[in-house]
From TrEMBL, chain A:
The lineage of its organism: Bacteria, Bacillati, Actinomycetota, Actinomycetes, Kitasatosporales. It is a multi-pass membrane protein. This is FtsW/RodA/SpoVE family cell cycle protein. GO terms for cellular component: cell division site; plasma membrane. InterPro entries: FtsW/RodA. Signal peptide: none annotated. Residues 1-20, 451-471 are annotated as: Disordered. It comes from the Bacteria. Keywords: Cell shape, Membrane, Transmembrane, Transmembrane helix. Residues 1-16 have a biased composition (Polar residues).
TrEMBL record, chain B:
Residues 179-202, 236-264 are annotated as: Disordered. One of its GO terms (biological process) is cell wall organization. One of its GO terms (molecular function) is peptidoglycan L,D-transpeptidase activity. Residues 157-483 form the Penicillin-binding protein transpeptidase domain. Residues 187-202 have a biased composition (Basic and acidic residues). This is Penicillin-binding protein 2. Residues 52-136 form the Penicillin binding protein A dimerisation domain. It comes from Streptomyces armeniacus. InterPro entries: Beta-lactam/transpept (IPR050515), Beta-lactam/transpept-like (IPR012338), PBPA_dimer (IPR054120), PCN-bd_Tpept (IPR001460). One of its GO terms (cellular component) is plasma membrane.
Amino acid sequence: MSSNLNINTGSNTTVSPGGLPSRRNTELAMLIFAVLIPVFAYANVGLAKDGSLPAGMLGYGVGLGLLAAVCHLVVRRWAPYADPLMLPISTLLNGLGLVLIWRLDQEPGITTPALGGALAPGQLMWSTLGVALFLGVLVFLKDHRVLQRYTYISMVVALILLILPMFFPARYGARIWITIPGVGSLQPGEFAKIIIAVFFAGYLMVKRDALALASRRFMGLYLPRGRDLGPILAIWALSLMILIFETDLGTSLLFFGLFVIMLYVATERTSWVVFGLGLSAAGAVAVASFAGHVQSRVDGWLDPLARAANGGVTETAQAMYSFGSGGILGSGLGQGYSRLIGGIAPKSDYILATVGEELGLTGLMAILVLYALLIERGMRTSLAARDPFGKLLAVGLAGAFALQVFVVAGGVTGLIPLTGMTMPFLAQGGSSVIANWALIAILLRISDTARRPAPAPAPSPDAEMTQVVRP
Amino acid sequence: MNKPLRRVAVFCGLLVLALLARVNYVQFVQADELSEHEDNRRVAIERYAQPRGNILTSDGKPITGSTETEDTDFKYKRTYKNGELWAPVTGYASQAFGATQLEALNDGILTGDDDRLFFNRTIDMLTGKPQKGGNVVTTLDAKAQQAAFKRLGDKKGAVAAIDPQSGAVLALASTPSYDPSSFAGNGEKDSEAWSKLQKEQNEDTPMLNRALRQTYPPGSTYKVVTAAAGLESGDFDLDSKTDSPDPYKLPQSQTDLGNDGDNPACKNASIRVAMQWSCNTVFAKMSDELGNDKMREMSEKFGYGNGELDIPVRAAESVYPEDNRPQNAMAGIGQASNRATPLQMAMVAAAVANDGTLMKPYMVDKLVAPNLNVVEQTKPKELSEPVSSDNAQKLQEAMETVVKEGTGTTAQIPGVTVGGKTGTAQHGENNEKNPYAWFISYAKGEDGSSPVAVAVVIESSDTSRDEIAGSKLAAPVAKDVMKAILDGKQ
């Protein structure tokens, strides 16, 4: 089936028959920068805080370099045509995230035992695990189309992952963690976003014709049939349930946005976007009108500098002050006061505030552009992919990544109400960094398949036939 | 599938663009507003990152200091030498509660962040020296300030003393006072000290700057202004008799206004005699005859109605309102809704002493860079000329009579010509609260010019009501302040 579809949907403009240069050496050169920049940043923090190079700088540098080198070698061997930019960008973001967390660990006020102490070592361990998963995916997932087989299994897994946190106690006002005694806590939403993209890609690939064509025209819009609308309403209801029972605005938004994007790409029908936006708006308004959790976030968004009920300065206001005090060039790494945000927030949700304050507008824009590049490479992978499943999966993953970046960065900078998600790679959080490395690995796998030189045309059976039949 | 894909890609691009636009807005457009916001703790952290410059008396002695702390946020803490004495001048600079008065107004110079110190700062940065704050040199005379504070003692009141020729403020005391050192830090002790000083917990309101920021009915001290208006109008002269009944029936009213002690000299008394015995009847009638407009005009020439009197700390506005006839008659003797700050009444005395020219009061002589270069020097400025030189001298004669042989004899200083005016201002409903005791005066040096004019107000004290009078309570305070200045001149 897939080989037939290749001819129909594969883009003729992006994949030249001769294949693209593999660009592995470009990747290597970029990776060297991606390792050097965090190492210099690390030295910078040490010099700013203590006036000396931090102890163990060499060790960390070599460690990060080794991880990057292994990644590069594995990509060279198992995904030789993969996109050359994604790995260096991910490495750079992860490295900068580690430096930022380590830098915030230097503030005694927010590194108390009650707050988990120093978090950089843990984050380093999770990053290593994430890279291991990245390598594992590249080595063992020879072809992304294999994932198509697990469409319905992934649906079940995703549902379980999304519903599970409801049975665990809420932390920091949101019920998005599951706690496994002895191991720690896990944020299943991060993994769910990948698995659900797999499910959508598989499901939509099968149903896209029914969704796209079996509809009536009404007032310029294609109204879907009731039976096709069913699953969409189900997804909408599920995302609302997450919002209500787990009070997790971010995940439900991400989840539903992802679905709308993939639906739109699969059916090529704008009416689905209109429905999607309409449903999400209705849901958001309905929930916001009675859930205090959401209301307080909207209030914080409308008036970020307002004082809290107890007369104190709110986290939102503190983050805004961080950005404002950072100005254009920033105070320099290690010389800001984003710790004033308080608690664990500056290391997790609000890590961009530290970027904004210490690296300034310049640094923050650079980071956002890095994310934009990563998203763009994901979209390009989707465009280049030759099979609809790969296309849908790539756009799903890249779209989820884009939405997450937008929701977090927009929330922290006050563009939209805050929703409490982690900044991919940058923020502290084990689940997040592992899941995002896996996400990048799958994207690399799809791009490797997409950019691989087209296999030599199989000998045509008909031609053979004419030759075989000889007088 | 590629068409919707491209659209999704464009959509994601728009999301990132929106983020970029937003961070530019926050970190570029809003940056200044946010980084200087009063709730932004970095402002305080920066303010105390280096020892703060000092506030000095006119003879160059610092009345503030800085000390290193253990705090993680704030490296240095403000200290005050004799804080209670100088609090009405310096204001406070607290890590937890912000800054006021000179500490706030000259914050840029004191922290070294002022734009005019840019050059110093750059040199320091290039040579690797830590940033240093500049100094604020005030016009205050340490001895006069001490005399005022000491003499006020545990009484509630205020003193304002001015150099009539320049307008330089020589003393500015307010009691009860507070020690700004007690809450300069940001610990629990500081919070406690702070809340104990707040209005809610302390009805003495020690943090109120009574000399600058509180208005009182000026009582009889205001008669100097009424007399000035009378003389300027040309209808009255210093020694010619007035047509004043005793008691005087307030216009459009059945109320009789009498005089303190029913002094027989008040009937048809001249301005000189009326001042000497503080006759209500004469001045109330004079105010009525001059009318509300003329009275207000004269008050404003003396500085009333100026809502932006910055010395550079802003003084509260003294008011002589538009009013009906009986009220205007009462306002002419410093009652009714006539309200003045002690500084305002010191300005009245100063204008008279300075032959009718009122100089703008100021209390910062100069701002000095860390390397002692003068950044800004205040030049004395004329504010107005309420009375002619001739009439000013007549007023001086009248005020000198008050001290020589009138109600103000307690302010006499041997060998020195002193002019003054007492006041006892009624207030409260039906005047049932203890009245305010006032005294305004000036002293003349040997060359006939005056180096000091003082206003004293005492709100309340343990003295029984009958004995409260400007001469008993307030005049001795003024005398001590004048003496301190005169002694310093020799």
